[in-house]
Fold this protein.
Amino acid sequence: MAGRIKADDIALVKERSSIEDVVREHVTLRPAGPGSLKGLCPFHDEKTPSFNIRPAVGAWHCFGCGEGGDVISFVQKVEHLTFAEAVERLAQKLGMELQYDEGGRPRDGESLGRRSRLIEAHRAAQEYYHRALLESPEARIGRDFLRERGFDGEAAKRFGVGFAPRGGEEVSRYLRSKGFSDDELTVGGLSGRGSRGLYDRFRGRLVWPIRDITGDTVGFGARRLFDDDRIAAKYLNTSETPIYKKSTVLYGLDAAKKAIASERKAVVVEGYTDVMACHLAGIEGAVATCGTAFGIDHIKVLRRIMRDEADLAPARVVFTFDGDAAGQKAAMRAFGEDQRWASQSFVAVAEQGMDPCDLRLAKGDDAVRHLVEDAVPLFEFAVRTTIARFDLSTAEGRVQGMRAAAPIVASIRDTSMRPEYTRTVAGWIGVEVEQVQAEVARAALPAPDLRDPIVFAERQLLQSLLQFPSCFEPADINALAPESFGAPAHRAIFDGIRAAGGLQPGLSERAWADKVAEAAPLAVRSLVSELAVAPLPTRFDKATGLPERRYTNALLLRVQEVALTRRIADAMSAMRRMAADPHSDPAQSRALSATLQDFQRELASLRERVS
């Protein structure tokens, strides 16, 4: 059993660790009065900074979420560590040897904690891969790959690029010789376990180390080099591990964070070589995602670093996308999340659709810098991409383009800018400003009033549908109509569910939510993302992890009941109008009466099921 760290050593770690330096690895700080600093809280989403530290007393506190503590508790929370692991991590940075109550270090390096052991294994693997790239004859194909893209040995060293041998066991053997256990290598994603023992996760590939914000290597991205590689995927990334969560990691962030903080500008590119090209060209705030789409957690990370705050001058986020259909789709997805920024978002697309790496190779560093400097507002790119699908030389095409562009204008968060954008879009399409104004007004969706219990029930039903689709029978959901939802925004989301093909058994929950977001109207895509993660106010079954069935059934029945009540009210109103009209058709009146009776029977049946 691991011994406890001696109390005197814990006190010494706290005393020697600068809370300001530790926090600055995760939060961009600015003065907040005598002896205080503040920034955006790393533990909850906010636009105005409420996270404060006082270096003199070694304490931190967030007035937004109420969290607070000392340097150890900060490291615990931000790195997801136990108390002992946090102390050990800080001690490691200080170069301090810890003592334990039960004498000496526990066996097998347990005192470093699991995270520290996995970090150390990745550091050793990265050094091995890099040495192999420089020295191994079989790595020549990797060196040629880099040279052909304008990267020399110094660039490879700067970014730690390496080569994974083809043999399949070399890296595992090397790491074992360094004292790492089989479990550590498999849990960390460096090795796999087969019938003949361990095998290397990456084989015959060019390898980039993926580092967290502090500079620790937590995973790898590997590029296919050989035609006979049995794994067809061009890029292979480390799977999710205790130290690597791809939804929160950005490649190059450890090197880019200083520039992002000082310039309050981030450049989001699509690949590892694009990050290298940008940094070498002087665009040092460039980062990329690691085998996943740019998402909500990535936004939170960048917002904290660049001080994307409502009370400051706007920061700047530049996305570079390929000019092809996939790049346009990625840009539109980014625009769908634009509401989450206080900053201004831009898009840079090079001529011929070249990415930054190809552009640097073809036209030099200046061309890469100009690409970023000449980026156009994301709004403009989104509108131009949308209306490009229509033939604006015809009246029909102009009307279609106007209707497609209106939701984009309506979704601009700064309402004072909408009139100007409306005039701009009218000019691009070639229609009167008043026509676009009318379409924008129709496209704007009011925020749902959650004080209304019926609207709140609609929200919970949509949350359940997005997060736990397996709780519902497809036939029950397909029987609902968009008109079943009273709030226009909720109706639009349900339109997206229907447009996505309705509930589909076998589709993962993540893929399902992404599919609905893409199918939903642009104006509600950010709301779809919100509902896909918002907590549900109910108990969950411990065995299945699903909300209780009676809860989801009650939500479905409630929405059905309210929708049916509305239809009954509409039918009764129509009957009264027909009774007051001496020229009404008796046959039509009888048909309406029969329909009303059917509605009332259906409502009675529903209420029996609820009770």
